[in-house]
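[recover] target loaded
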């Protein structure tokens, strides 16, 4: 059967510019037939990451040009294949990281970017560990290389990346101190971490009381002035992994400047003769130069995370589910900082 001859209609959520979530627009159009190496993927679940929140403000480091369709990752079912793609992929579920484009009922993707989703895993559950799971796995095991018996600090332990990172660390036999607002402390404890209130002015002192000899790694998505305190928590041989600048999300000005300042600070710290190291984690690092190696690493890491989810080692942290037509409400809830886990977008009924 030639799957490319059927016209596919897609419904997309468009971010037209720097607007409030209510300013998102709905667009319907026909997708072109998949080209060589491409598939049509019907969205079963996508979600709201911190990246979309930054993109809405025009403050993402690698900001896409407006207008565009947000959506950093997606889980879906292949409905058509292009030339050179195995037609037996049709009807099977896959996950993919897209950076943009995920908030659509159907989209064109390169078949090489697809990672199989295990049977029996709910699509919304799988969605929570795509970009979040890859990020957490790579920071823990590739960047910081934290070993069993270590102690780490996870800022924002109730968030999408943070909650996944806590679970991966606990599975690896690592003690976790996790920051969150007091209302999320029960959820953080349930994940296996020791909660500390991030609103407490003495937060870093509380962490030092829990780990008086210092910690082996700090995972910091906040940046800003607090990054200095994160650095000071490290013991000799410890690693600071910075992966965001949430502290500057509401500031006006150049979207790249806070990140560039952070890069410079981390580089200087790495030159100090104290046995500690600092890294900035970039999800897309290496893709432009070595796309095949990038894809292979991503596939390996996401396959590991999805298998842990299938085995029950990871518990999906679905904060809420919204139909695609209510993407504005999904974005607003994610930005409210009142939820644990990831806000997921699913097809309209």
């Amino acid at each position: 059967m030639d799957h490319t001859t059927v016209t596919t209609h897609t419904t997309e959520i468009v971010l037209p510019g720097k607007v409030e979530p209510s300013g998102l627009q709905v667009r319907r159009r026909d997708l072109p037939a998949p080209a060589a190496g491409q598939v049509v993927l019907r969205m079963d679940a996508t979600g709201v990451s911190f990246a979309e929140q930054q993109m809405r403000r025009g403050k993402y480091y690698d900001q896409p040009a407006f207008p565009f369709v947000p959506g950093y990752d997606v889980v879906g079912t292949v409905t058509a294949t292009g030339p050179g793609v195995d037609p037996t992929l049709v009807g099977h579920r896959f996950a993919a990281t897209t950076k943009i484009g995920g908030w659509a009922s159907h989209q064109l993707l390169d078949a090489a970017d697809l990672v199989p989703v295990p049977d029996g895993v709910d699509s919304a559950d799988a969605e929570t560990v795509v970009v979040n799971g890859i990020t957490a796995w790579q920071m823990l095991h590739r960047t910081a290389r934290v070993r069993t018996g270590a102690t780490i600090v996870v800022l924002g332990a109730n968030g999408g990346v943070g909650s996944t990172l806590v679970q991966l660390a606990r599975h690896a036999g690592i003690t976790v101190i996790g920051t969150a607002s007091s209302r999320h402390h029960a959820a953080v404890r349930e994940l296996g971490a020791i909660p500390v209130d991030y609103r407490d002015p003495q937060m870093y002192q509380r962490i030092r009381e829990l780990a008086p000899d210092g910690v082996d790694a700090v995972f910091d998505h906040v940046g800003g002035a607090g990054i200095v305190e994160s650095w000071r928590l490290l013991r000799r041989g410890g690693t600071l992994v910075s992966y965001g600048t949430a502290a500057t999300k509401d500031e006006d000005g150049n979207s790249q400047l806070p990140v560039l300042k952070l890069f410079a600070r981390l580089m200087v710290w790495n030159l100090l003769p104290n046995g500690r190291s600092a890294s900035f984690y970039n999800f897309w690092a290496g893709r432009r130069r070595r796309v095949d190696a990038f894809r292979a690493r991503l596939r390996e890491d996401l396959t590991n995370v999805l298998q842990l989810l299938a085995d029950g080692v990871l518990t999906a942290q679905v904060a809420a589910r919204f139909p695609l037509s209510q993407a504005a409400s999904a974005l607003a809830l994610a930005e409210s900082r009142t939820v644990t886990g990831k806000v997921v977008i699913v097809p309209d009924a």
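[recover] notes: The mean pLDDT is 93.
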